[in-house]
């Protein structure tokens, strides 16, 4: 089977990617784990005993990192439309978190508690049509912010992937209205040519 130039380039990059090799060695589910590790080192987002929500969690790279840090006294509530294998200290709900039944399951799982941290490395299925993909991506991140405003405790934190482009500046302004401090990060494990950045909101105003 012949690969297109771009998919062949992706395969070459992936096979030779130091973060892919490191993830295999460290027993981590994906190279994206290192993005959360770096965000956490810089912004001190996750602590033992925390309740964390991971939106768009499959294959589990971020949930795995968070689950290890929160430990037995903490919990990660993860959700994705795709299946995800079991992880320690993680409860997984398969489905679309924007649908009422899945949202109700998430609320049942947190059982009246407020969440300390909401993280999301979510991305839409890519169609290849730039404007449509950007719109889909912004729609998803806006939905994660809606969730934050419903479940995050005052003083809590939020970390989300955003693709820079149409709508991203407006989204940044919107996040700033809800948090004491917002920073933009480009972790080392984020491919340089990718338009992705991570917004970290600290100190939710509630």
From TrEMBL:
The answer to keyword Transcription applying to this record is no
One Gene Ontology term, aspect cellular component: cytoplasm
- EC number, as in UniProt: 2.1.1.166
Chain positions recorded as S-adenosyl-L-methionine binding sites: 60, 62, 80, 96, 121
Q: Which residues form the Ribosomal RNA methyltransferase FtsJ domain?
A: 29-204
Q: What does this protein do?
A: Specifically methylates the uridine in position 2552 of 23S rRNA at the 2'-O position of the ribose in the fully assembled 50S ribosomal subunit.
* Protein known as: Ribosomal RNA large subunit methyltransferase E
**In which organism is this protein found?**
Kushneria phyllosphaerae
């Amino acid at each position: 089977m012949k690969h297109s130039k771009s998919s062949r380039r992706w395969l070459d990059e992936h096979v030779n990617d130091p973060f892919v090799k490191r993830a295999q060695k460290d027993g981590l589910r994906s190279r994206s784990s290192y993005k959360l590790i770096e965000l956490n080192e810089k912004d001190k987002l996750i602590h033992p005993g925390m309740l964390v929500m991971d939106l768009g969690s499959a294959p589990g790279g971020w949930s795995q990192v968070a689950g290890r840090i929160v430990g037995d006294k903490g919990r990660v509530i993860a959700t994705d439309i795709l299946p995800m294998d079991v992880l320690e200290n993680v409860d997984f709900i398969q489905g679309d978190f924007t649908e009422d039944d899945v949202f109700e399951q998430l609320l049942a799982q947190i059982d009246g508690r407020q969440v300390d941290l909401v993280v999301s490395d979510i991305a839409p299925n890519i169609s290849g049509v730039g404007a449509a993909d950007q719109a889909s991506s912004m729609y998803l991140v806006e939905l994660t912010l809606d969730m934050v405003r419903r479940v995050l405790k005052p003083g809590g934190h939020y970390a989300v992937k955003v693709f820079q482009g149409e709508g991203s500046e407006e989204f940044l302004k919107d996040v700033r209205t809800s948090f004491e401090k917002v920073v933009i990060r480009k972790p080392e494990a984020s491919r340089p040519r990718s338009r992705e950045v991570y917004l970290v909101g600290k100190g939710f105003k509630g």
